[in-house]
Amino acid sequence: MKNTVTMPFVIQTADTFYKRFKGLMFRNEPIREEGLWIVPCNSVHMFFMSFPIDIVLLNEQKEVIRLIHSLKPWRATKPDKNAFSVLELPVGTIGDLCIRIGDTLEF
């Protein structure tokens, strides 16, 4: 069943080359009650990260097309040709909000 899921916390936008490249790198503390929307983007890397995060790949309508639970530091995802953007969230958010493929996200 497809749902609309509203993010219950602030989502920052990374929409310039520098902001997309930097993302959440070099932060010491895990993110809590915040997220980062990287647009355009179809894959992520976790180089220079010190904590895992949940990854949600979205199409242009902000529909979920792929979910990655707890991506660990020093890992990377394969590019997804159908992804328009990526939402980086605190670890556990996908499960806590019951986000599913096909859902539409609001933030």
Automatic annotation (TrEMBL):
Signal peptide: none annotated. It comes from the Bacteria. This is DUF192 domain-containing protein. It comes from Neobacillus piezotolerans. Transmembrane segments: none annotated. InterPro entries: DUF192 (IPR003795), Saro_0823-like_sf (IPR038695).
